[in-house]
Amino acid sequence: MSKVTANGKSDDDCLFLEQVLDKLYDFDVAQKDHQVEVVTFQDPRKKMKTKHTPTPDKIKARLEVHRFGITGYHKEQQRVFEQDRAIMLGARPPKKQYVNYKILQQQIKEKRLKDKEEVDPVRPMELTLDKKKPSTSGSGSGPSGQVGRFKNGMLILSSKEIQKIKGTKGRR
After folding, report:
1. Which residue ranges are recorded for the region named Disordered (predicted)?
2. Would you say the pTM of this structure is higher than 0.70?
3. Is pLDDT at 160 greater than 70 in this prediction?
4. Of 167, 144, 148, 166, which Cα lies nearest the Cα of 158?
5. Stretch 16-33: mean pLDDT
6. Short-list 29, 9, 30, 27, CA closest to 19
7. C-alpha closest to that of 88 among 72, 69, 73, 66
């Protein structure tokens, strides 16, 4: 490769300088292709997700076992179990059948009665009799440091308490 100047002569000095600069700065493309380093980035959050999820083989095996277990029932029961399986896999459950409101209330009452009977099948008469509850510590005769009582955000004073307050002011 020789450069031709305006006079038409080759400039050997320019050519020599270009070769030296090419070697110095390594402009050779063929050598750079071998030096390229490929780096792949793996998101750590995605790695963790793959570790914690069960393998698809286990999930498929579980569903196959469930499907095989259903085959042992009659057709009507199989349909019910298939419906439950579909719900387990994420399908929406079917809507409940319409029931008249009065009938629904009766069913709820019957259900509550059954629940009460299961919890307390036989209730002795002694428990149903009125028991005397121990009195909670309310406004006892002992000094509490508070005068009167509060009702609906207002302080209510009895006439005795008013007399006590008036008597203590006179002594001061």
Report:
1. 112-172
2. no
3. yes
4. 148
5. 69
6. 27
7. 66
